Amino acid sequence: MACTIIETSNAPDAIGPYSQAVAAGPFLFVSGQLGLDPRTGELVDPDFELQARQALENMRQIVLAAGCQMDQVTSVEIYISHISNFSKLNDIYQEFFGDHKPARAVVEVSALPKKAGVEIKCTAYKG
Length: 127
Description:
Elements: E1 3-6, E2 21-24, E3 27-33, H1 48-65, E4 73-80, H2 86-97, E5 103-108, E6 118-125
Helix pairs in contact: 1-2
């Protein structure tokens, strides 16, 4: 099975030796996205809500670049530095997914790259 690397200038460049996403067979695997401004590669703001919104927008732009839509996302994994932001995250998340409800996990972690408050990755079904 061939893998296709997905890249878009509408999302930040990877900050390490990995791709924004990889399409393999009928699946799209999107790497973890921080709340980085695609133009500068820096966090948009220290505010959790602004970072979460930007991380989801970055993820959405990669999904679109792969020829998918958000309703094709099957699974989402979210890492947050403070579980107290869980309800804020849910409100912002719903703005991006509406009635579509992919499988999801939210995990509190001790630290994220660039001292971010949130990192979001997903899998989509391209089939």
